[in-house]
Write a structure and sequence with these properties.
The complex is a heterodimer of chains A (306) and B (328). Chain A is an all-alpha fold. Helix content of chain A is 70%, strand content 0%. The longest helix of chain A has 37 residues, at 93-129. Chain B is mostly helical. The chains are: A mainly alpha (306), B mainly alpha (328). The A-B interface holds A 142-143, 146-148, 150-152, 154-156, 158-159, 231, 235, 238-239, 242-243, 245, 255, 258-259, 262, 265-266, 272, 276, 279-284, 287-288, 303-304 and B 15, 18-19, 22-23, 26-27, 30-31, 127, 139-140, 142-148, 151-152, 155, 266-267, 269-270, 273-274, 284-285, 288-289, 291, 296, 299-300, 303-304, 307.
Chain lengths: 306, 328
């Protein structure tokens, strides 16, 4: 029984909770979530982005045309039967855009997850141990940064046959170094904090300090970076696919769809504008989400109260 | 400053060697140009011809030896043999670099000037309608795939040409193929006409991200004590903005622009492909598809040197812009 209830039971009049000054305890996560939810552009973007994701992954199971099946109608403008029209060989553009969005999202998300996972652990270990370990690990990361992404991606993908996970692995294999730099600089300052000293005094192992104390506290910059990597990932993949070095037919990606439609901008504009609009929508919403997350994790950069 | 420059150049040499060596190994192991030669021709070449081809492109040597021969050859100005007969890689490289530089130079200058103007304006009028519009346009261009935008611009150019009945806006290549060069003026307008659309494409993409940087840097500076002090001393607002605030705000921008320009000089691959310019980007794509090892290495070497040079320029500019930084 709390004090208030006890007083109430005793017949003493007490002010209701909302009438008195009360301090509600909030955890760090709750604070961050509250700040994010109040960021209007970020919240709208999150909803739109999630709708696109759901549509791309669940839609193909409900739609009556498959992305790889010919339909009897070719070069048709958008209609009820074919909401995004059809192309010259009779493929249903709605099914193809759904499939393309799915592939592009899968690649972008795998790039973000893969490079974040490798980069975060790499940077945390380098920052935690410092000295010779740090020097060697960061020189390797610097070396990876000097490798030209496009050249490597072009060379490797011309051989790998364009399966979606290969493209993601190649791109992630060159972008993790950025993440490792960011995480290292965060960990370098975190490792001097008292809670790390306390953990060490309690006898925590190095691995425990890195994975239970340092990485969770560096989560802010890690998540913000991962979000931005999804946006750059989708732009890189679509550009590669556009240059015919990415996803190969019969599978499709948003970049490949734009490439196939570039000669038909005048005659079948729906084939060109719709996949392009989807790339823009995905990259735009992710950038806004990233912006909202940055503000939420870093209260110093908060907007003025309105 | 000279000693610093020399030291920086010396440090970058091992990085350059390690980086080119890794890429060399990746390229050499990523495909077999000899097999391409043997299978893709009609009639099929004889065994002796295939062997001669392999010898010609050094495919019969072990990779480490090839790398060593390549790097010593480059020091003598020999970039090695191409898989295409009669292609002088060194000559090809510098012709293409000149093409890319003409394409990139104007675009980057326009982007930089616009980014500073709009970024500063956006920061001074923070949270105004203008700031929100500039921010939104910036976000939009950051999210827009270059290839989509470039194709759209190309179509708009063709449409405009049809409407006006002229051929001023070139959409293919860096100059008209059968231009009757009677006057230098004709040649000049022809070049300009071909430059406009790709320049707009490149400029808008860089403009978007640089505006964001300028705005952020300017906001940070505007909130600092020395700017308030300068105003309190009675210095006019315009002068405080340009001499006190902008000068400091330009420092982070130099790094970003230097890196961006350096990487774009390695070839604006998408823009060059769509407008069919024969620049560095096309060189990279052709070299990668034909597994032309030495051509790709020549591309890599030049673009890596450009990256290193621009990084150095950015660091030296730091010292010019920020009196607290001294290199010795």
């Amino acid at each position: 029984m709390t004090d208030t209830e006890a007083a109430g039971a005793a017949g003493i009049e007490v002010p209701r909770a909302d009438q008195e000054f009360s301090v509600k305890q909030r955890t760090q996560t709750q604070l961050i979530l509250r700040r994010f939810v109040r960021h209007r552009a970020a919240m709208i973007s999150l909803v739109v982005f999630l709708l696109i994701v759901l549509w791309a992954f669940i839609g193909p199971h409900l739609w009556h045309y498959s992305y790889g099946k010919f339909t009897p109608d070719n070069s048709q403008a958008p209609s009820w039967k074919h909401p995004f029209g059809t192309n010259a060989s009779g493929y249903d553009a709605y099914a193809q855009v759904m499939r393309g969005t799915q592939t592009s999202l899968k690649i972008a998300i795998l790039i973000a997850l893969g490079s974040t996972l490798v980069g975060a652990v790499w940077g945390a270990i380098a920052g935690f141990y410092r000295g010779i370990v740090d020097a060697i690990m960061m020189r390797i990361a610097d070396l990876v940064l000097t490798l030209p992404l496009l050249a490597i991606a072009l060379v490797i993908s011309s051989r790998s046959g364009g399966s979606w996970y290969w493209i993601a692995v190649v791109i992630a294999g060159l972008t993790w170094a950025y993440v490792s730099r960011v995480v290292r600089s965060t960990v370098l300052s975190l490792r001097e904090k008292e809670f790390v000293e306390a953990a060490r005094a309690l006898g925590a192992s190095d691995a425990r300090i890195i994975f239970r104390h340092l990485l969770p506290n560096a989560l802010g910059p890690i998540i913000v970076n991962a979000t931005i990597l999804v946006a750059t990932g989708i732009l890189t993949e679509t550009a590669l696919s556009f240059l015919s070095f990415g996803v190969q037919p019969p599978d499709t990606s948003l970049g490949l769809l734009v490439a196939q439609a570039q000669t038909a901008v005048d005659t079948r504009p729906w084939l060109f504008y719709i996949p392009g609009a989807f790339i823009i929508a995905i990259a735009l919403t992710i950038n806004f989400i990233g912006d909202g997350l940055r503000d939420a994790f870093d209260p110093r950069q908060q907007r003025v109260r309105q | 400053m000279l000693a610093y420059t020399v030291r920086r150049i010396l440090v970058s040499i091992p990085v350059l060697i390690a980086s080119t060596f890794i890429v060399f190994l990746v390229v050499v192991n990523s495909g077999d140009p000899v097999a391409n030669f043997a299978t893709s021709r009609q009639p099929a070449p004889s065994k002796a011809a295939v062997a001669a081809f392999a010898r010609h492109i050094h495919a019969d040597q072990p990779a480490v030896e090839r790398y060593w021969n390549w790097i010593t050859g480059v020091l003598h100005g020999d970039f090695g043999p191409s898989v295409q007969s009669n292609l002088d890689i060194g000559h090809d490289l510098f012709t293409r670099f000149r093409v890319t530089v003409t394409l990139v130079a104007a675009a980057m200058l326009i982007a930089l000037v616009l980014a500073v103007i709009f970024g500063v304006f956006s920061a001074i009028r923070q949270y105004s309608a203008a700031d929100y519009s500039i921010t939104f346009v910036g976000f939009l261009f950051l999210a827009m795939p270059v290839f989509w935008f470039a194709v759209l611009l190309k179509q708009a150019g063709i449409w405009l040409n049809e409407q006006t009945g002229s051929t001023f806006l070139g959409t293919i290549g860096e100059k008209s193929p059968y231009l009757e060069v009677d006057t230098w003026w004709n040649e000049f307008t022809d070049h300009m006409g071909h430059l406009i659309l790709p320049t707009i494409t490149l400029a808008l993409v860089s403009f978007a991200s640089w505006t964001r940087y300028t705005r952020a840097a300017m906001l940070e500076v505007l909130g600092s004590d020395y700017v308030r002090l300068a105003r309190a001393k009675g210095i006019r607002r315009g002068r405080v903005m340009t001499r006190h605030a902008l000068r400091t705000a330009l420092i982070p921008l130099t790094t970003v622009t230097a890196l961006d320009i350096a990487s774009i000089l390695g070839g604006a691959v998408v823009t060059e492909t769509i407008f069919q310019w024969h620049g560095m980007g096309e060189m990279l794509v052709t070299a990668a598809t034909t597994i032309d090892v030495y051509r790709l290495m020549a591309w890599l070497l030049l673009s890596a040197v450009v990256v290193i040079a621009f990084n150095l320029i950015a660091d030296l500019l730091y010292a010019v812009l920020d009196p607290r930084i001294r290199y010795d």
